[in-house]
Fold each of these.
Amino acid sequence: MIEVSNLHKSFGKVKAVDGVSFAARDGEITGLLGPNGAGKTTTLRMLYTLMTPDQGTVRVDGIDAASDPLAVRRRLGVLPDARGLYKRLTARENIAYFGRLQGLDESTIRARSDAAIQALEMEDIADRRTEGFSQGQRVKTAIARALVHDPKNVILDEPTNGLDVMATRAMRTFMHRLKDEGRCVLFSSHIMQEVAALCDRIVVIAHGRVVADESPAQLLAQTGKASLEDAFVEIIGSEEGLAA
Amino acid sequence: MKSAFTVFWKEIRENLRDRRTVLNTLLTGPLFAPLVFALVINAAVTRQLDKAEKPLEVPVVGAEHAPNLIDALKQQNVVVKDAPADPERAVREQEADLVLRIPGDYGDAWRKGEPAQVELIYDASQRDAQGSVTRLQRALEGYGQRTGALRLLARGIAPDLIRPLVVASRDQSTAQNRSGTLFGMLPYFFILGGFIGGMALAIDTTAGERERQSLEPLFANPVARGSLLAGKLGATSAFAFVTVVLSIVAFSIVGHFLPTEKLGMSLELGLRFGALTLFVMLPLVFLLATLQTLAAAFAKSFREAQTYLSLLMFVPVIPTMLLSVFPVKVQTWMYAVPVMGQQVAITRFLRGDLVTPSQLGLCFAATAAAALVVYLITARIYESERLAISG
């Protein structure tokens, strides 16, 4: 469970995030939708305590991120916008490194790595050095690494960015699986189709503010539009920065 | 603490797999400098010895005017050669080191007992020719003095009468002192070794990690940034330390092959020297690694970091240059200045001079304190929000 209330963050004079509030519940997929530059990545960065909000609070499973950032990070699995791997280490070693930093013991790390490698269908690349991995292989490794500590809450920043059709499908299946396991899944996207296909709940962000927080069906009802695409355009006020 | 070790071992393992880093920091860095140094010293020493022992070849113009002088020179191991057509030009163009010219009126002046003139044509700016010029001058003066003494004796006067003063030189330098001057540059090689050894990792673990976009995921782990920094600094220092150890070992081995005893020098390159040098270098290695990490943390990219660190590399050169340009007397405060303290101490170890335990302690403590200050600054930088954001 991730609760965000009244987050503010400015860089100089630019207000990147200007009063964002929403909640992402366990057993649901929550999509953070907005055009490029709407403040999605900055909002997520404050959730996983990389940045400190100027104002407002973040709570993960009831823990305040400002007072106990380490406990919050322990409960989060994060796939950030930056997802670089260590190219001189194998995929398995990359996963194990993060496992150790999460404080897991070696046998747990091995068991979790095996499970993740199987779930993400990456047996063939697990013991190869990650140098020269395709975009899809890199994302798979980065996800396995982010989830090695079996977190209750999962944050994915544009998880399908740069993936081909097959890899995108695999990613969506995987997210459904995380939801079915009862986790709280929060992901950002600027692709409407993706959000529509996956989400139980859609949080639309534009210009650093939440402009809608509904289920897809409610969104259609509220705007009176026939398609989600038209509904988004209506809500955001322009088509700028959105991809179909 | 456990996380710091995790980071430490991962950085070590990852960088050991980078062949270029391993070659540069563990092989080329420590071995290149001593080998080049040994070659240069060896060549210099051998050339000096050659010049002192080899027959001195002297082109002579008008040798036929002074057969006795020529005979006397031949006894002094001088080989008389035919002179070039234009001696002045030949010396200017470095075709000959020196030319001796005996004018036609030499014989007349000699027989009349007047000072007979010979001309020595050389170029004082050619340092290479200096040894030959000095040797020929000595040989000529010796011949003149012997002849003068014989003339006085023939007139019943004791030759000592025209030598009212005799200077006896008493050189107080010991064999080890003399090698110390020759090896004044050695501490710089150790310091530079530590610098080069840590460079690849200092960049790779900060600017490199950010450029590869792996710093942000790393910071998402439940580990305090201070622990991450400690692990990274540890790995950087470890590489630098290994480079320094290898440099010392390499020098100890190479030093034995240097023909220093031919110059009447002896080097103190034993276990004691190694241990003391390591002791004073230990805090310096950490200081340099922390400085490098600090500089690299400011850089936006790998390249920028390389530029910063190349500039930073000149900092340890400054005391070395100052000490060689202004060879001041060693004073205790010098031990308290990082880099300069090591420079002074290692030079003294090498010369076999005494460094008191309190001076050693001062050197270690002052450098360690400086390292701690830089570490605290770096730790603050590491806490900053902007550090993780790539691009």
Note: Chain B touches chain A at residues 2-3, 6-7, 10, 13-15, 17-18, 209, 212-224, 385, 388-391 (CB under 8 Å).
Amino acid sequence: MTKTVIEMETPITCLEQGTKATVVRLIDHGSSFQRRLRAMGIREGKSLKIVAVHPFAGPLVVEVDGREITIGRGIAQRILVEVKE
Amino acid sequence: MKRIVLMGNPNIGKSAVFSRLTGADVIISNYPGTTVDFSRGRACLQGELVELIDAPGTYSLEPTSRAEEVAFEVLGWADLVINVVDATNLERNLYLTLQLLEKNKPMIVALNMWDEAERSGITIDTKGLERLLQVPVVTTVALTGEGINGLVNRLKDASTPTETKVHSEEEMWMEIGRLTREIQKVTHRHPTAWDKLSQATIKPLTGTPIALMVIFATFWVVRFIGEGLISNLFEPLFELYRPLAMSISNWLGPGLLHDLLIGGLIDGEIDYIQSMGVLTTGIYVPLGMVLPYIVGFYLALALLEDSGYLPRMATLSDNVFHRLGMHGHAIVPLFLGLGCNVPGALSTRALETKKQRFISATLLGLAVPCTAKSAMIFGVLGPYGLSYVASVFATLAVIYVAVGLLLNKVVRGVSPEIFLEIPPYRRPNIFMVLKKTWMRIKWFLSEAIPFLFLGVLMVNVLYATGVIEWMGIVFAPLMEGWLGIPGEAVAVLLVGFFRKDLAVGMLLPLGLDPRQLVIATTVLSLYFPCVATFAVMIKELGIRDTMKSIAVMVATALLVGGAMRFALLG
């Protein structure tokens, strides 16, 4: 199996279904947007898992703290993570 | 009167706690100047009559949406705050709790969904949490009512913490980390069958067929309930009412007032569908034809919401709705609109921005046939074969998508992306489902029935004053030439301006061939919402946007009608 080399910081939109990762950074889009993500459990240092990637640029479903959250593509692009081995 | 406000994150059973605390006299109010609704009710708690307010769910007190702004405003009215917390997700919920503590209002924390937390291996030291937060902490299972008495008994202990420090966001998360480490233990558990089901219903490959089955089953249930109510309850009730209506008719005698109130008599008898009086058709259509299905639709919606399926449906359908300038939640107005466009249009309120509400309401009026209209389309075209019926519905579906794609490009404004939490599946509690359905039906009756009445009255006035006849004469040549249907059908189209369900039925005696009927019913569906929906649109969108919306509908109707004419009649 070839090992894919992924950059340190990857937006979650590049990940495949089932990947586990740690949130590294939220790209700024006004602090209220960041606060909302954080309040829903998506903040620096948190682990998340990609549950579903809907085709044709549809939303992503990620799991944080045992809860699933649906996130539109545009918002998801601004969540940078580090993939866990 | 003392005001108690319930605050908490969305989807954590806050409204269930509210329902358990309040009696039957709950009203849904609209926060002035916004499109946000919240519930308020009264209850006698410990010998004192208090007002309870169920604030919209919010993650923090720094509002990121209109609903969260309203939650913040409503908090200001509180003499006492009940902070409902999801015990299965303590960490996330404590952010709001800590912010609420800074507000220096007497507060009590209810750790809700306590049974679910226990089942999933979470133990919380409530005494410890009480000590750390310095306010009473109780455990509840609102769905079954467990712990609600305990909550009521401890309301008198609600307190403001003796020392509150104002934290920055970062400090807050640090503090929450410390708190949860100290008082919460999580034992690892294996994924349950529910977890597996949850994942299967949200992945595109497995979720889509499941969603289609759920939708199919839902419509079957709605139809079952609607038809059952009509034949067992509403029809008999209207037969009881008939002698009264007839005696009013006799007492009034012929004249303008008779035309307005009772309408025309068919063979000396009142015909609830064709008489068109305010006291006959005006009552029969909303109560006898539409309401039974509304009951079914609201009941189905409550079941979809309370089981936790709706957010999954929104996720799966987001792909389509996102391209039409809305997002997955727009499935609710579409779903309700298939019952009756009026509650559909009212439910566009839940969408976040003006652009989303405009597109949703326009597509609703344009291409979503209500039960009354669908029944008429079946009635008129069914005898010629189901392919004719299907072609009308298929055309409407294509138009819904095509016009949506276009409006998304043209309409100015933003359409935020979907961003929602998927709650775990829960077994709906029948008491809660029925109470919610009842509250909505009550709300529908008070919000929509006046408009339906007004609609019939307006049509009657326009008829009596000859306006409709005049319009028929003016527009007949255009319609005849462009749509290829005879002049008499034009008068029908104009009645359809206000009452499309009836207009479709009136096409029958004109002897159109099935192709002409397909064109006429499609155009009828497209070009104008029924008058009640029109009135609700003005209320929800404002007169300017409603006019724009109508312009879109008329233009689409003429273009599609013309195109169909060339396709079908040559």
Note: The longest helix of chain A spans residues 31-39.
